[in-house]
Structure formats: structure tokens, C-alpha cells
Amino acid sequence: MIHKEDPFKANFDSLEEFADRISDLLQCPITIEDANHRLIAYSAHDDYTDPARTATIISRRVPEKVINSLWKTGVIPALLSSEEPLRVETISDVGLGNRVAVSIWKNNEVIGFIWALETGRTLSKDDMELLKKAAKAAKNKVLQLYMRKNKREERVQEFFWKLLTGHIKTNEEIHENFSAMQIPAAPRFSVLVFRFANGITSDLEKQISYILQTTQQVQVLLYTVERNDFILLVAPKSADQPLYELNQFISSFATKMKERFHINSIQSSFGGIYETFEYIEKSYKEALTVLSMKEKFPEQTFSIYGYQQLGIYQFFDLLLEKKQQGEFANSALTKLQAYDEKHHTNLIETYEAFFDHDSNVNETAKALNIHPNTLSYRLKRIAEIGEIDLHNMNQKVKLYIDIKLAKYEALH
Amino acid sequence: MIHKEDPFKANFDSLEEFADRISDLLQCPITIEDANHRLIAYSAHDDYTDPARTATIISRRVPEKVINSLWKTGVIPALLSSEEPLRVETISDVGLGNRVAVSIWKNNEVIGFIWALETGRTLSKDDMELLKKAAKAAKNKVLQLYMRKNKREERVQEFFWKLLTGHIKTNEEIHENFSAMQIPAAPRFSVLVFRFANGITSDLEKQISYILQTTQQVQVLLYTVERNDFILLVAPKSADQPLYELNQFISSFATKMKERFHINSIQSSFGGIYETFEYIEKSYKEALTVLSMKEKFPEQTFSIYGYQQLGIYQFFDLLLEKKQQGEFANSALTKLQAYDEKHHTNLIETYEAFFDHDSNVNETAKALNIHPNTLSYRLKRIAEIGEIDLHNMNQKVKLYIDIKLAKYEALH
DNA sequence: CATTATTTTGTGGATTTCCACAAAATTAAT
DNA sequence: ATTAATTTTGTGGAAATCCACAAAATAATG
Asked: How buried is A107 (Cβ within 10 angstroms: 0-12 exposed, 13-18 middle, 19+ buried)?
């Protein structure tokens, strides 16, 4: 099939119609996606489609695992760096058959993709050329969509910011806005913050937004940007393990940012998980509290992301304030410190390590490079010197807290 | 030996002289004590004295174990209820040889004792009569001492009260007063409070004072009375186990008050142990904090006396305040509560009991009357439902605190 | 420098904990 | 009322803890 003149010169009303036209010309199923792999249009009269395409059409977005594998195999990076069509071999793990893809460009930016599934036949050089022309012809329509989405995005972000700062209080008002903007409802949510080392440029924002759009672990209801912080309203899917899901999300986000965009050192946190929207502001503040604590007390909190996981550190600022007014003097701690000082021992360090390792003798001994019996001996001495009963939860905990608090104070 | 006329008619200059006179007449060593068993005077020209008397003279007070045994054998109660001389058989445990005692009375009150040690000879009926007369004759001189002591006591109490309320601040000023009033210095001290069910009458005050004067476990530097509270400045003797000594003191005080005066239900507490006197006010406040906490949260604190032992409850009022402002919501706790509610389970109670029993599976199971495996199973469920890692000290502790805090809030 | 006190490491055995598995009992759901 | 899910109790064996004791190493003291 040879097309001397541009077969896409004629106007078309919708991108669906356009997809069908390409499909007719190339004799294979066509899918058009936006830059975030959301479905824009697809050709209708095809007899066969592979599982990946089916899933894409059903959920109106490309499945996350498909996107991940397209990144890993270098397909998407190639599409983002060249206007040339690219053949993708079958990746059967994710139900992806042979296909050819091309990116749609506006100036120096990719604003979408066209996919041609090679079901019956393999595309020729000329067919590839044709696909490239199709990409150019689709530009304007995709751009319109893109602009429209951007405008909506701005309105939505403004709304989110009002929620975060508590400028919209009543549940009714919030719900009205949610449905007006077609933001899906969710039974529970949390505010999540990614804090970057530098200010978030609009380029970076697009990259983040891209990763979020292609994430299906949690539902991202809203997001906005504030200096170095990328702030999200996210809804974990399960009622059973919301914390687990959020942690997973954070970790996979960090991995993706690192692998795909070489951005390291993102600090992440999320606030409490709540069920009604009045708590958005609170959850946000809690997320900020976690970040602030992670900054001030990094060694103790590096593995903590959620406000709940922050545990006793939630009230450390409160305790510190009182401590600095001279309260909560712990004579056990004082005595142990004095003993350590005088005899060059490590009783406090030992105590701390022991409880950091969940009162597990062997683990702690290993971590401290000492014999387990040495650890036992030291604990016995700690009990004697500090006059503290190590079988008493209350006393144990108090000393543990006081040790951490002293560390915190020293860092301050 | 018969003495028709009163042999004590003649004036005498000092009680020492008087003791010698009796000793001459009865041919045995004589000791005169005040109502609190402090040595007032003793006869000098005696060839033999038993260990109890020696110790009494050396330390200028009757040893505590001797007093205890005189109470147990009913000697002191008898002396306190009758003017008649009383023979005491040897109590060899405490180094007490045979002797005769008589109490010195002023109106209806005992203000001292005279002891005659039967070293060589046994006292006859007439000798006893003589001793009784001696007690009457000693009255005035002993009373003078008694009054003088009382006056000093008043001045000292006033001074102590100023210390407690922070009206004397500088260490210098405090030290000056201490030496002016001949209060012994002590390397470390704490303020201790006994709170009685009712106001402290002057009778009760005397009884308490009596017990304190005869106590040698800790050194009582100062005391005073405020409504229902008997407030003491005490100095533990050892540097190693001051807490232990103070706890012992409290427990033995309670026992004595019960056994000797049938007074139950004393609430006791003490503040921090400090080394410089500026902290007296603070220690006092801490002691009051303990008492207040014991009142508000009795089940959790019934075995706590010292401020240090109060542990995490030291900052419960602080936490409660924040909690009531809506902070520190713990979703793990919320979920567990919901689960308990819905399925009629006891997860929270189980968790609490487990840590109250120092994470000891067997003990806890016994206390809850369940199989140890049931406990394990419940803990596993708690971890799942609350999304909490039971191998993580921080998370464990936070939930424990939050459970106790919820209880505390409910009691409020 | 010698002596004493304290700390560390090692050994062995009784006890306890931890788990996996399974049967019974109870509760919830259709 | 039957089925399914959850909870409780039981058994047994591997692993870990605890403890007493002792030798070696180190630190403190006169």
C-alpha cells in the first residue's frame, strides 16, 4: 500500500474517527494515549486485540505493569527521545503482543502516543512512515485535550490547596466540590507529601504527575505543588492494610523517580488516614510533622513515613519543651550517664540498642559486637545502677523515652 | 533499803545529776529518755551496761530494733497507759538485759521514760516505788526540755514550709539556716508526703513524729504538717539504692501506723532525689504530682510511690490535654476498638495485659485465664488488624501509651 | 607493681518461647 | 440449618533465653 499524498489531510471530527481511519489504512487495531498513558481513543472494528489492549480500554488507562515493563525495556525512553516509530516485540508476562508505537509531539514535548497492534500482519517501512504522519496529524486534537486537562488541573489544584489550608471546612461544601470536579469519592484517604531537595520545576512536576497517573497501587485523588513539596491526596484501596499500601506506594515512587529520572533523596511522609474530608487539613499537618521530625531526628526516623508510625516521636516536641523547663529529670538516666562517664562504659548505648532491637538479646549482641552474656551482664548492671526494674514496662519505657529525648535535645 | 521520806526532795541542777542520784539509790545503771526515746541523761558510775544501753548512749537514741521489740512485746503500750513501773525480761535478740521502766507523765501525756538496768540485783517492791517517785520528780526538768524542743520544732517547721513553697531560694541562705538550726547536712534527699484520710490532729502528729523519731532506715531532716499531709524531708543513707530505701521506709511506716495506731489508708509518695537544696520545692511538687496521679489513676499506680517510678504517667496530663484537642489519634487503637466492639473480642484488654506483664506470654495467659497459644493468636490478630509491628519498640510503646491514655481519659 | 574489682567471654543445662500444624469450639453468614 | 470463618486449645520439636558458674581480660586502687 503506497500513499503518495497525505491521507490525513481531510478533517476529522473526533479522535475516535481518526483512530478508525488509521486502523483502516494499516489494517490493525489502533490505540491513542495521552502523555500519561490514559486512553484517548481506540479503533473499533477490530477482530482481535491482545490482553494489554483490552485491559487498557476497560480501565481507560494502560495497566501499570505494562508501563513498568515498557520503561524497563527502554521503549518509553526511546519514544520520549525520538519522533520515529518503534517496534516492540512481544512481552508475554504482561500480555503485550507485537506492536509499533510512535510519539505525538508539540514543540519539544511528547503529548501522546499512537499504538498499532500487529495482529495479522507486520507493518512495512511505508506503514511506519504513515504512522509517523498520523502522529503529526493527531497533534492538534490531542493538544486541545491536553490544554483542556491543564485548565481543569489548575482549578482542581486551587481547590486542593484550599482544603489543605482549611479554607473549606464543612463536609457538604467539600463534597459538592468533589462531585462538581468529578473527583471520585473514596472511603478513606491520607495526605502524602514528597519533599524534593530543590524547588519543583514544571518539568519535574510533569514527571511526577506522569508517575502518579500511571500508578495504580493507590488512587491519587488530588495533588498540588508547594515549593519543594509535592502534596497528594491519596486513597488506599484496601480497608485492611492502608498503611502497608501507602508505604509500598512511597517506596515504589522513590524507586521510579530514581530509575527513570535519576532523582534521589526524596523525603516522603503521610498523615493520618481518615474517613471524612474535614480531616484533610489535619492529615496534611501530620504529614508535615513527620517530615519535620525526619529532618530533626533522622537516625531514629529514617524508616518512618506515616504519622502513626512516628509513634512516641509524635509528642517529642511537647516533651522537649517541658524537659527544657527542668521537668522529667530521670535519676536513672543521670546515674547511668555518670557511670558511663566515669568508667568509660556504654550502658546507655547498650540499653538503647537493646530496645531498638526489640529486647532481643542475640540481635542486639550482634549489632553491638559483644557476647550475648556481656549484654545480659550489662543489663543487670543497668538495673542495679539505675535502680530500675527491667521487668516493669512503665519503667523500661520511661527510660527508653528519656534516652531518646536526651539525644533529641542534644541534636536540637 | 527503805526510804520513808522522799529522797528526791532536794533540788538538782541537771538530769545527769538526777540520774546519778537514782543510780546510787537503786545500785543500778539509770537511763532517762524523752517521749521519742531520745537520750536525755544517763548515770555515769556504772561498771556494767548491756549492749542496748551502750548503743543508746553512743547514738543518743534507742536503737530502732529495740523500740520495735518493746512495742511487739507490749512494754511500750503498757508504759503509755500506766504510771506504774514495769519489769522487762531479757530480750537477747536485741541485746536487752533485765530492767525496769517507768513513764514520766505531765497531765495525761507521757513525756519521757526512766530505765533501770538490773545488772547485779533485782529491784524490790520498794525500789519500784522509789522509781515511780523518781519519775514524778523528774517531771519538771523533762518538761522544760520538752517545751524547749517544741519551740525549736515550731521554728524549724516554719523554715521547712518556706523551703517547700520556694520562699527561700538561694543555696547559701538555705545552708545558713540549716547550720543555724543544727539540722544535719545530707548528700541527697527527697521530699516525702504521707496523706491521711482526715486532717492531722496534734495527737496524730505526735504519733507520727514518734514513729519518725524512732526510725533509722532513713534520716528525717525536717517535717511539717499541712491539712491531711505529713510532709518530710528525708535523706536516704546509701548512694546506691536511695529509691529502695525510701520505698522500704514508706512500707514500714505504713505497717507501724497500722499495727501501733490502727491507722490504715495512708497514701504515700516522694519526689525526685536531689543533691542540692534548691530542689526541695521541686521534689515536693513532684511528690504531690504522684499523689494526684495515684488518686486519678489508682489501678495503674497503686504500687508506685516515687516520682521516678511514676514513669510514663509523669506526662499523662500533658498528653491528655493534647489528646482532647484532637491530637495523637491512633488508628491502630481505633481499629482495634472497632473490632472488639463488633466481634465481642478482648484485643485491647489482651494487649494491655500482655505489656502489663512485661511481654511474658505465660504470665499473661495465666492472668487472663486463657491458653498461651490463644494469647499468641490474639497478638497476631492485633498486629494484623491494627497494622502494627509488634517487633517495633516504638510502635508497641505508642499503642500501649495510647491505651492507657484512653483509660485515663475515660476516668477523668 | 601487686592486689582487687569489674567486665567480658565461654560452657552447659534447665526452662521458656516460638511455630507449625491440627482438632475442637464458637461465631458469623448465606 | 448448613457452611464458612474465626477463635480457642492442644501437641511436639526446634530455637532461643536464662542462669549459674568459671576462666580470662581489663580497669581501678593503693
From this structure: exposed
What chain A holds in terms of domains, given with CATH numbers, is 15-145 (3.30.450.40), 165-309 (3.30.70), 318-411 (1.10.10.2840)
In angstroms, the first-to-last Cα distance of chain B is 74
Furthest-apart CA atoms within chain B: distance in Å: 95
B73 vs A: CB within 8 A: no
For strand C, is any atom closer than 7 Å to the CB of B391?
no
CB pairs under 8 A between A and B: 92
**Mean pLDDT for chain A overall:** 92
- A1 confidence band (pLDDT: 50, 70, 90): very low
B327 vs A293, A296, B226, B320, CA distance in Å? 16, 20, 38, 9
Angle value at C-alpha A126, between A120 and A128, nearest 5 degrees? 70
Q: How far is the C-alpha of B146 from the C-alpha of B129, rounded, in Å?
A: 25
ipTM of the complex, rounded to two decimals: 0.87
Interchain contact, B397 vs A319, CB within 8 Å = no
pLDDT number for residue B385: 95
* Regions in chain B scoring below 70 on pLDDT: 1-6, 10
Query: Which residues 305-324 of A have a C-beta within 8 angstroms of B?
Result: 308-309, 311-315, 318-319, 322
Through-space separation of residue A356 CA and nucleotide D25 C1' in angstroms? 29
Please check the confidence at residue A173 and state whether its pLDDT lies above 50: yes
pLDDT, tens digit, 9 for 90 and up, residues B140-170: 999 998 898 888 888 999 999 999 998 888 8
A302 touches chain B (CB under 8 A): no
- Give tens-digit pLDDT for B188-224: 999 999 999 988 888 888 889 889 888 888 999 999 9
Measuring from the CA of residue A343 to each C1' atom, give the nucleotide at the shortest distance. Answer: D27
A27: region left, alpha or beta (phi > 0 left; psi from -120 to 50 alpha): left
A180: number of Cβ within 10 Å: 10
Task: Please give the pLDDT value at position A44.
Answer: 86
The owner of cell 479503533 is: A43
- CA B362 to chain CA mean position, Å: 36
Give dist(CA A341, CA A407) in Å, integer.
Answer: 16
Among residues of chain A, what percentage have pLDDT more than 90? 70
Shortest distance between the Cα of A241 and any Cα of chain B, in A, equals: 7
Q: Is the dihedral of CA A149, A153, A154, A155 positive or negative?
A: positive
